[in-house]
Design a protein that fits this description.
The chain is mainly alpha-helical. The protein has five helices and three strands; from the N terminus they run αβαααβαβ. The termini are far apart.
Length: about 130
């Protein structure tokens, strides 16, 4: 898939998610783009998968491009970034979940940032 095609798909699916939910998260976007299944996301949340990238379909460079495109889309649409902490589900202590094999802070932040539609009348707030 070309970079341009990735950008088009990210924008289309992100728009749909914002319209339906009022926000878009990278995890929801990857499910919508069929790069990961809801069951795989659930297994990751239950600590059956050590990091989400392990089960994501596709080239990591293209995935990185998709995440950066989402960030750009969010800025263009004036969506508010909200870093979300992903904790494990199920029995035992709740551990912070990892998205990438490396645990690189930049990548972890890209994956964990949700972009929220601003409420009416808050356009000028920062």
């Amino acid at each position: 898939m070309t970079r341009k095609k990735i950008e088009q798909r990210v924008r289309r699916h992100a728009s749909e998610l914002v319209y339906k939910k009022g926000y878009v998260s990278p995890v929801d976007l990857l499910v919508k783009m069929e790069r990961v299944t809801p069951k795989q996301v659930n297994d990751w949340r239950l600590k059956k998968i050590p990091y989400l990238e392990r089960v994501i379909v596709g080239n990591l460079a293209k995935l990185n491009h998709a995440l950066k495109t989402l960030n750009k889309f969010a800025n263009e649409q004036n969506l508010k970034p909200s870093i979300t902490v992903y904790k494990s589900w199920g029995k035992g202590p709740k551990k912070r979940l990892r998205f990438s094999k490396s645990g690189n802070p930049f990548m972890e932040k890209l994956y964990s940032t949700h972009y929220v539609r601003k409420k009416q009348g808050t356009e000028s707030e920062d």
